[in-house]
Protein backbone atom coordinates (compact mmCIF):
# COMPACT_ATOMS: atom_id res chain seq x y z
CA UNK A 1 0.00 0.00 0.00
CA UNK A 2 2.64 2.55 -0.88
CA UNK A 3 -0.14 4.42 -2.68
CA UNK A 4 -0.67 6.17 0.68
CA UNK A 5 2.89 7.54 0.60
CA UNK A 6 2.47 8.47 -3.04
CA UNK A 7 -0.76 10.32 -2.28
CA UNK A 8 1.10 12.19 0.47
CA UNK A 9 3.77 13.00 -2.12
CA UNK A 10 1.09 14.43 -4.42
CA UNK A 11 -0.31 16.55 -1.60
CA UNK A 12 3.16 17.90 -0.80
CA UNK A 13 3.63 18.94 -4.41
CA UNK A 14 0.24 20.68 -4.32
CA UNK A 15 1.11 22.53 -1.11
CA UNK A 16 4.47 23.59 -2.51
CA UNK A 17 2.79 24.80 -5.70
CA UNK A 18 0.16 26.71 -3.69
CA UNK A 19 2.88 28.85 -2.11
CA UNK A 20 4.66 29.37 -5.42
CA UNK A 21 1.64 29.99 -7.62
CA UNK A 22 -0.56 31.74 -5.10
CA UNK A 23 -3.70 29.63 -5.00
CA UNK A 24 -5.78 28.49 -2.09
CA UNK A 25 -7.78 25.56 -3.30
CA UNK A 26 -7.23 22.75 -5.72
CA UNK A 27 -10.30 21.55 -7.58
CA UNK A 28 -8.83 19.00 -10.00
CA UNK A 29 -5.51 17.18 -10.16
CA UNK A 30 -4.26 15.36 -13.25
CA UNK A 31 -1.65 12.73 -12.59
CA UNK A 32 0.08 10.39 -15.01
CA UNK A 33 0.52 6.84 -13.81
CA UNK A 34 2.44 4.43 -15.98
CA UNK A 35 1.02 0.93 -16.31
CA UNK A 36 4.42 -0.47 -15.35
CA UNK A 37 4.78 1.77 -12.28
CA UNK A 38 3.26 -0.79 -9.91
CA UNK A 39 0.63 1.73 -8.81
CA UNK A 40 -2.98 0.65 -8.53
CA UNK A 41 -5.13 3.57 -9.78
CA UNK A 42 -8.09 2.64 -7.56
CA UNK A 43 -5.91 2.48 -4.46
CA UNK A 44 -4.32 5.77 -5.47
CA UNK A 45 -7.73 7.47 -5.76
CA UNK A 46 -8.81 6.08 -2.38
CA UNK A 47 -5.62 7.24 -0.67
CA UNK A 48 -5.77 10.64 -2.34
CA UNK A 49 -9.23 11.23 -0.87
CA UNK A 50 -7.97 10.16 2.56
CA UNK A 51 -4.81 12.28 2.69
CA UNK A 52 -6.34 15.43 1.23
CA UNK A 53 -8.99 15.68 3.93
CA UNK A 54 -8.54 19.00 5.71
CA UNK A 55 -6.06 20.22 3.09
CA UNK A 56 -6.11 22.65 0.16
CA UNK A 57 -7.16 19.72 -2.02
CA UNK A 58 -10.08 18.47 0.05
CA UNK A 59 -12.77 17.21 -2.29
CA UNK A 60 -10.58 17.73 -5.37
CA UNK A 61 -11.22 15.50 -8.37
CA UNK A 62 -8.31 13.18 -9.17
CA UNK A 63 -7.92 12.45 -12.88
CA UNK A 64 -5.57 9.56 -13.49
CA UNK A 65 -4.05 9.43 -16.95
CA UNK A 66 -2.90 5.90 -17.60
CA UNK A 67 0.31 5.75 -19.64
CA UNK A 68 0.87 2.53 -21.61
CA UNK A 69 4.01 0.49 -21.08
CA UNK A 70 6.44 0.60 -23.99
CA UNK A 71 9.72 -1.10 -24.66
CA UNK A 72 12.48 -1.48 -27.18
CA UNK A 73 13.35 -4.97 -28.34
CA UNK A 74 17.07 -5.63 -28.17
CA UNK A 75 16.66 -8.53 -30.60
CA UNK A 76 14.70 -7.07 -33.54
CA UNK A 77 15.23 -3.40 -32.72
CA UNK A 78 11.55 -2.48 -32.85
CA UNK A 79 9.38 -0.76 -30.28
CA UNK A 80 6.67 -2.81 -28.61
CA UNK A 81 3.82 -2.36 -26.11
CA UNK A 82 4.25 -3.97 -22.72
CA UNK A 83 1.63 -5.02 -20.19
CA UNK A 84 4.30 -6.16 -17.73
CA UNK A 85 8.03 -5.48 -17.47
CA UNK A 86 8.83 -9.10 -18.31
CA UNK A 87 6.65 -9.29 -21.46
CA UNK A 88 8.24 -10.56 -24.63
CA UNK A 89 8.49 -8.52 -27.84
CA UNK A 90 5.14 -8.49 -29.67
CA UNK A 91 6.98 -8.64 -33.05
CA UNK A 92 9.60 -11.35 -32.60
CA UNK A 93 8.81 -12.88 -29.20
CA UNK A 94 12.25 -12.18 -27.75
CA UNK A 95 12.94 -11.47 -24.08
CA UNK A 96 14.11 -9.30 -22.46
CA UNK A 97 12.68 -6.07 -23.80
CA UNK A 98 14.18 -2.81 -22.58
CA UNK A 99 11.46 -0.76 -20.88
CA UNK A 100 11.26 2.75 -22.37
CA UNK A 101 7.99 4.10 -20.96
CA UNK A 102 5.15 3.41 -18.57
CA UNK A 103 7.01 3.63 -15.26
CA UNK A 104 6.18 7.29 -14.61
CA UNK A 105 4.24 8.75 -11.68
CA UNK A 106 3.87 12.46 -12.28
CA UNK A 107 1.63 15.30 -11.25
CA UNK A 108 0.86 16.97 -14.58
CA UNK A 109 -1.40 19.90 -13.94
CA UNK A 110 -3.98 21.33 -11.61
CA UNK A 111 -7.14 23.32 -11.76
CA UNK A 112 -7.10 25.77 -8.90
CA UNK A 113 -9.13 28.52 -7.33
CA UNK B 1 6.30 10.27 9.82
CA UNK B 2 8.29 12.63 11.92
CA UNK B 3 7.00 16.06 12.80
CA UNK B 4 10.30 17.71 11.97
CA UNK B 5 9.76 17.54 8.27
CA UNK B 6 6.26 16.16 8.22
CA UNK B 7 6.04 13.66 5.43
CA UNK B 8 3.46 11.45 7.01
CA UNK B 9 0.96 10.73 9.67
CA UNK B 10 2.98 10.38 12.83
CA UNK B 11 3.40 6.60 12.89
CA UNK B 12 7.14 6.45 12.35
CA UNK B 13 9.49 6.16 15.31
CA UNK B 14 13.24 6.32 15.11
CA UNK B 15 15.08 4.88 18.11
CA UNK B 16 16.47 7.45 20.49
CA UNK B 17 14.28 10.16 19.06
CA UNK B 18 11.47 11.27 21.31
CA UNK B 19 11.41 14.85 20.15
CA UNK B 20 9.24 14.44 17.13
CA UNK B 21 5.88 15.95 17.71
CA UNK B 22 3.03 16.48 15.37
CA UNK B 23 0.60 19.28 15.32
CA UNK B 24 1.12 22.54 17.10
CA UNK B 25 -1.00 25.06 18.91
CA UNK B 26 -1.29 28.61 17.72
CA UNK B 27 -1.56 31.73 19.83
CA UNK B 28 -5.32 31.78 19.35
CA UNK B 29 -5.58 28.30 20.81
CA UNK B 30 -6.35 26.42 17.60
CA UNK B 31 -4.38 23.25 17.20
CA UNK B 32 -3.21 22.22 13.78
CA UNK B 33 -2.27 18.77 12.72
CA UNK B 34 -0.81 18.75 9.27
CA UNK B 35 2.29 17.97 7.28
CA UNK B 36 4.74 20.84 7.14
CA UNK B 37 8.29 21.63 6.17
CA UNK B 38 10.79 23.30 8.36
CA UNK B 39 14.46 23.34 9.12
CA UNK B 40 16.01 20.19 10.56
CA UNK B 41 17.63 22.03 13.43
CA UNK B 42 14.52 21.71 15.58
CA UNK B 43 14.37 25.46 15.58
CA UNK B 44 11.28 27.46 15.05
CA UNK B 45 11.78 28.00 11.34
CA UNK B 46 8.39 26.99 10.08
CA UNK B 47 7.65 27.28 6.42
CA UNK B 48 4.30 25.99 5.44
CA UNK B 49 1.12 27.05 3.81
CA UNK B 50 -1.95 26.72 5.96
CA UNK B 51 -4.72 24.70 4.55
CA UNK B 52 -7.55 27.08 5.19
CA UNK B 53 -7.60 30.62 4.02
CA UNK B 54 -10.67 32.80 3.91
CA UNK B 55 -12.76 31.77 0.92
CA UNK B 56 -13.36 34.15 -1.99
CA UNK B 57 -10.58 36.52 -1.10
CA UNK B 58 -8.92 36.42 -4.48
CA UNK B 59 -6.13 38.80 -5.27
CA UNK B 60 -7.12 41.35 -7.90
CA UNK B 61 -6.25 40.28 -11.40
CA UNK B 62 -6.05 36.59 -10.51
CA UNK B 63 -8.74 34.67 -12.37
CA UNK B 64 -11.01 32.65 -10.16
CA UNK B 65 -10.28 29.31 -11.76
CA UNK B 66 -7.09 28.59 -13.60
CA UNK B 67 -4.78 25.81 -14.62
CA UNK B 68 -1.34 25.33 -13.12
CA UNK B 69 1.29 23.23 -14.87
CA UNK B 70 3.25 21.11 -12.43
CA UNK B 71 5.03 18.34 -14.35
CA UNK B 72 6.71 16.93 -11.26
CA UNK B 73 7.52 13.42 -10.25
CA UNK B 74 5.33 12.27 -7.35
CA UNK B 75 8.45 10.92 -5.68
CA UNK B 76 10.32 14.23 -6.14
CA UNK B 77 10.49 14.92 -2.40
CA UNK B 78 11.73 11.44 -1.58
CA UNK B 79 14.24 11.62 -4.40
CA UNK B 80 15.58 14.95 -3.12
CA UNK B 81 16.11 13.43 0.34
CA UNK B 82 17.73 10.40 -1.30
CA UNK B 83 20.17 12.68 -3.14
CA UNK B 84 21.11 14.31 0.18
CA UNK B 85 21.84 10.89 1.65
CA UNK B 86 23.77 9.87 -1.46
CA UNK B 87 25.87 13.02 -1.21
CA UNK B 88 26.72 12.25 2.40
CA UNK B 89 27.74 8.70 1.45
CA UNK B 90 29.91 9.99 -1.41
CA UNK B 91 31.64 12.58 0.76
CA UNK B 92 32.50 9.96 3.35
CA UNK B 93 33.27 7.05 1.02
CA UNK B 94 30.43 4.99 2.47
CA UNK B 95 29.13 2.03 0.47
CA UNK B 96 25.41 1.85 1.23
CA UNK B 97 23.18 -1.10 0.41
CA UNK B 98 19.41 -1.33 0.66
CA UNK B 99 18.47 -4.93 1.52
CA UNK B 100 14.98 -5.87 0.40
CA UNK B 101 12.98 -9.10 0.52
CA UNK B 102 9.76 -10.63 1.73
CA UNK B 103 9.49 -11.25 5.48
CA UNK B 104 11.35 -14.36 6.58
CA UNK B 105 13.96 -14.56 3.83
CA UNK B 106 16.74 -14.51 6.41
CA UNK B 107 17.87 -10.89 5.93
CA UNK B 108 18.77 -10.25 9.56
CA UNK B 109 20.60 -13.57 10.02
CA UNK B 110 22.50 -12.86 6.81
CA UNK B 111 23.41 -9.41 8.10
CA UNK B 112 24.64 -10.78 11.41
CA UNK B 113 26.82 -13.36 9.62
CA UNK B 114 28.10 -10.71 7.21
CA UNK B 115 29.06 -8.32 10.02
CA UNK B 116 30.84 -11.15 11.87
CA UNK B 117 32.73 -12.13 8.72
CA UNK B 118 33.77 -8.52 8.07
CA UNK B 119 35.00 -8.06 11.64
CA UNK B 120 38.39 -6.39 11.59
CA UNK B 121 38.29 -5.61 7.85
CA UNK B 122 35.40 -3.21 7.44
CA UNK B 123 33.24 -1.08 9.71
CA UNK B 124 29.58 -1.74 9.26
CA UNK B 125 26.65 0.36 10.48
CA UNK B 126 23.06 -0.79 10.15
CA UNK B 127 19.65 0.82 9.81
CA UNK B 128 16.85 -1.61 10.60
CA UNK B 129 13.37 -1.04 9.25
CA UNK B 130 10.37 -2.86 10.71
CA UNK B 131 6.79 -1.93 11.42
CA UNK B 132 7.22 -2.68 15.12
CA UNK B 133 9.85 -3.66 17.74
CA UNK B 134 13.57 -3.02 17.93
CA UNK B 135 14.46 -6.72 18.08
CA UNK B 136 16.41 -6.64 14.84
CA UNK B 137 18.53 -3.64 15.84
CA UNK B 138 19.26 -5.41 19.13
CA UNK B 139 20.40 -8.53 17.24
CA UNK B 140 22.74 -6.34 15.18
CA UNK B 141 24.07 -4.45 18.21
CA UNK B 142 24.90 -7.79 19.84
CA UNK B 143 27.57 -8.18 17.12
CA UNK B 144 29.15 -4.89 18.22
CA UNK B 145 28.02 -2.95 15.13
CA UNK B 146 26.13 0.31 15.60
CA UNK B 147 22.47 0.01 14.59
CA UNK B 148 19.40 2.23 14.64
CA UNK B 149 15.88 0.88 14.41
CA UNK B 150 13.20 2.67 12.45
CA UNK B 151 9.66 1.58 13.20
CA UNK B 152 7.41 2.56 10.36
CA UNK B 153 4.17 1.91 12.29
CA UNK B 154 1.64 1.22 9.58
CA UNK B 155 4.14 2.17 6.88
CA UNK B 156 5.16 -0.57 4.47
CA UNK B 157 8.59 0.73 3.44
CA UNK B 158 11.45 3.00 4.46
CA UNK B 159 11.75 6.34 2.72
CA UNK B 160 14.79 8.53 2.21
CA UNK B 161 13.65 11.04 4.79
CA UNK B 162 13.43 8.48 7.62
CA UNK B 163 16.85 7.17 6.62
CA UNK B 164 18.26 10.72 6.70
CA UNK B 165 17.13 11.07 10.31
CA UNK B 166 18.44 7.64 11.27
CA UNK B 167 21.82 8.62 9.80
CA UNK B 168 22.02 11.52 12.28
CA UNK B 169 21.91 8.95 15.08
CA UNK B 170 24.39 6.47 13.64
CA UNK B 171 28.09 6.37 14.18
CA UNK B 172 29.24 6.16 10.59
CA UNK B 173 32.84 5.35 9.79
CA UNK B 174 34.49 6.97 6.76
CA UNK B 175 34.99 4.40 3.99
CA UNK B 176 32.71 2.04 5.91
CA UNK B 177 29.61 0.09 4.98
CA UNK B 178 26.01 0.97 5.63
CA UNK B 179 23.44 -1.80 5.43
CA UNK B 180 19.85 -0.67 5.39
CA UNK B 181 17.49 -3.54 6.08
CA UNK B 182 14.19 -2.47 4.62
CA UNK B 183 10.75 -3.54 5.84
CA UNK B 184 10.03 -7.10 4.71
CA UNK B 185 7.92 -6.42 1.63
CA UNK B 186 8.56 -7.23 -2.01
CA UNK B 187 6.34 -4.46 -3.36
CA UNK B 188 6.57 -0.98 -1.86
CA UNK B 189 10.30 -0.55 -1.08
CA UNK B 190 11.03 -0.91 -4.81
CA UNK B 191 9.74 2.59 -5.52
CA UNK B 192 11.70 4.43 -2.83
CA UNK B 193 15.28 5.44 -3.44
CA UNK B 194 17.07 5.80 -0.08
CA UNK B 195 20.30 7.13 -1.56
CA UNK B 196 21.89 3.67 -1.59
CA UNK B 197 24.47 2.50 -4.11
CA UNK B 198 22.42 -0.61 -4.85
CA UNK B 199 19.36 -2.51 -3.82
CA UNK B 200 20.11 -6.12 -2.97
CA UNK B 201 17.12 -8.46 -3.12
CA UNK B 202 17.19 -11.61 -1.02
CA UNK B 203 15.11 -14.53 -2.23
CA UNK B 204 15.14 -17.61 -0.06
CA UNK B 205 14.68 -20.97 -1.75
CA UNK B 206 11.82 -21.79 0.61
CA UNK B 207 9.78 -19.22 -1.33
CA UNK B 208 8.47 -19.74 -4.86
CA UNK B 209 10.98 -19.61 -7.70
CA UNK B 210 8.51 -17.44 -9.64
CA UNK B 211 8.75 -14.54 -7.16
CA UNK B 212 10.82 -12.48 -9.63
CA UNK B 213 7.96 -12.40 -12.13
CA UNK B 214 5.27 -12.12 -9.46
CA UNK B 215 6.99 -9.08 -7.96
CA UNK B 216 8.89 -7.77 -10.98
CA UNK B 217 9.39 -4.20 -9.76
CA UNK B 218 11.62 -5.24 -6.91
CA UNK B 219 13.75 -7.59 -8.99
CA UNK B 220 14.02 -4.94 -11.66
CA UNK B 221 15.23 -2.36 -9.11
CA UNK B 222 17.90 -4.64 -7.62
CA UNK B 223 21.52 -4.93 -8.74
CA UNK B 224 22.12 -8.24 -6.99
CA UNK B 225 19.94 -11.18 -6.03
CA UNK B 226 21.08 -13.33 -3.14
CA UNK B 227 19.51 -16.77 -3.33
CA UNK B 228 19.52 -17.60 0.35
CA UNK B 229 19.01 -20.82 2.34
CA UNK B 230 20.55 -22.89 -0.47
CA UNK B 231 21.47 -25.55 2.13
CA UNK B 232 17.77 -26.50 2.08
CA UNK B 233 17.66 -27.19 -1.69
CA UNK B 234 17.88 -30.99 -1.31
CA UNK B 235 14.55 -30.94 0.55
CA UNK B 236 12.71 -28.65 -1.85
CA UNK B 237 11.52 -28.63 -5.44
CA UNK B 238 12.90 -25.13 -6.01
CA UNK B 239 14.60 -24.81 -9.40
CA UNK B 240 17.60 -22.48 -9.16
CA UNK B 241 18.03 -22.10 -12.96
CA UNK B 242 14.36 -21.18 -13.33
CA UNK B 243 14.53 -18.60 -10.53
CA UNK B 244 17.58 -17.03 -12.17
CA UNK B 245 15.90 -17.10 -15.59
CA UNK B 246 12.82 -15.33 -14.16
CA UNK B 247 15.01 -12.72 -12.44
CA UNK B 248 16.93 -12.03 -15.67
CA UNK B 249 13.68 -11.81 -17.61
CA UNK B 250 12.70 -8.74 -15.57
CA UNK B 251 16.28 -7.51 -15.13
CA UNK B 252 18.81 -8.79 -17.65
CA UNK B 253 21.71 -7.21 -15.77
CA UNK B 254 20.96 -8.64 -12.31
CA UNK B 255 23.85 -10.46 -10.64
CA UNK B 256 23.14 -13.61 -8.65
CA UNK B 257 24.92 -15.26 -5.74
CA UNK B 258 23.72 -18.58 -4.34
CA UNK B 259 24.33 -18.77 -0.66
CA UNK B 260 23.41 -20.02 2.77
CA UNK B 261 24.12 -17.93 5.81
CA UNK B 262 23.73 -21.13 7.89
CA UNK B 263 26.48 -23.16 6.18
CA UNK B 264 28.50 -20.23 4.86
CA UNK B 265 28.09 -21.34 1.24
CA UNK B 266 28.49 -18.39 -1.14
CA UNK B 267 29.64 -16.12 1.67
CA UNK B 268 33.02 -15.50 0.03
CA UNK B 269 31.37 -14.38 -3.21
CA UNK B 270 29.05 -12.04 -1.30
CA UNK B 271 31.93 -10.58 0.73
CA UNK B 272 33.98 -10.11 -2.44
CA UNK B 273 31.03 -8.31 -4.07
CA UNK B 274 30.80 -5.99 -1.05
CA UNK B 275 34.57 -5.41 -1.05
CA UNK B 276 34.49 -4.35 -4.72
CA UNK B 277 31.71 -1.84 -4.06
CA UNK B 278 33.39 -0.52 -0.92
CA UNK B 279 36.70 -0.07 -2.75
CA UNK B 280 34.89 1.85 -5.48
CA UNK B 281 33.17 4.15 -2.96
CA UNK B 282 36.47 4.79 -1.20
CA UNK B 283 38.24 5.40 -4.53
CA UNK B 284 35.61 7.93 -5.52
CA UNK B 285 35.95 9.77 -2.23
CA UNK B 286 39.74 9.93 -2.56
CA UNK B 287 39.37 11.13 -6.14
CA UNK B 288 36.88 13.82 -5.05
CA UNK B 289 39.16 14.99 -2.24
CA UNK B 290 42.15 15.05 -4.62
CA UNK B 291 40.28 17.05 -7.23
CA UNK B 292 39.02 19.51 -4.59
CA UNK B 293 42.60 19.97 -3.35
CA UNK B 294 43.77 20.63 -6.92
CA UNK B 295 40.98 23.15 -7.33
CA UNK B 296 41.93 24.93 -4.05
CA UNK B 297 45.57 25.07 -5.16
CA UNK B 298 44.52 26.56 -8.51
CA UNK B 299 42.32 29.16 -6.87
CA UNK B 300 44.99 30.08 -4.34
CA UNK B 301 47.45 30.55 -7.18
CA UNK B 302 45.02 32.80 -9.05
CA UNK B 303 44.30 34.75 -5.88
CA UNK B 304 48.03 35.27 -5.27
CA UNK B 305 48.47 36.44 -8.88
CA UNK B 306 45.52 38.81 -8.66
CA UNK B 307 46.71 40.20 -5.31
CA UNK B 308 50.27 40.53 -6.57
Task: Describe the model.
The complex is a heterodimer of chains A (113) and B (308). Chain A is built from two helices and six strands; from the N terminus they run αβαβββββ. In chain A, the strands form two sheets. A three-stranded mixed beta sheet of chain A has the order 2-1-6, with helices on one face. A three-stranded antiparallel beta sheet of chain A has the order 4-3-5, with no helix packed on it. With 113 residues, chain A is an alpha+beta fold. Chain A has helices at residues 3-21, 41-52, and strands at 26-34, 61-67, 69-73, 79-82, 97-101, 105-112. Helices cover 35% and strands 19% of the residues of chain B. Chain B has a domain at 77-284: Rossmann fold (3-Layer(aba) Sandwich), CATH 3.40.50.300. Chain B is an alpha/beta fold and 308 residues long. Chain B has an eight-stranded mixed beta sheet with strand order 1-9-8-10-7-11-12-13, sandwiched between helices. A two-stranded antiparallel sheet of chain B has the order 2-3. Classes of the chains: A alpha+beta (113), B alpha/beta (308). Chains A and B meet through helix 1 and strand 6 of A and strand 6, helix 1, helix 6 and helix 7 of B.
Elements of chain B, N to C (H/E): EEEEEEHEHEHEHEEHHEHEH
CATH architecture assignment of the domain at 3-68 and 102-112 in chain A: 2-Layer Sandwich
How many strands in all of chain B?
Answer: 13
Secondary structure: number of strands of chain A: 6
Major beta sheet of chain B, specifics? Answer: 8 strands, mixed
Count of alpha and pi helical runs of chain B: 8
Radius of gyration of chain B: 23 Å
Give the overall average pLDDT of chain A. 93
Major beta-sheet overview of chain A: 3 strands, mixed
Shape of chain B: globular
* Count of runs of 4 or more consecutive helical residues of chain A: 2
Amino acid sequence: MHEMSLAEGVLQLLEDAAGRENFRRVTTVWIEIGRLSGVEPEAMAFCFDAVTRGSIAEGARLEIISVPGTGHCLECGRDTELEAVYDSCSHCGAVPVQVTGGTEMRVKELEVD
Amino acid sequence: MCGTCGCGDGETRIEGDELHEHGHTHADGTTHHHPHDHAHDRGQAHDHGHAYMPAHSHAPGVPKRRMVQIEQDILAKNNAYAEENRKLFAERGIFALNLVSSPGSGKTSLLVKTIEALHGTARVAVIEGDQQTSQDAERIRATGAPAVQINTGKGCHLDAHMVGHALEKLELADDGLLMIENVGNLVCPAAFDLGEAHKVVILSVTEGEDKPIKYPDMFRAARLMLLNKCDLLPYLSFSVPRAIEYARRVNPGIEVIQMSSTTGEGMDAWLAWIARGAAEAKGQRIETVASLKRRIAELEQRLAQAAG
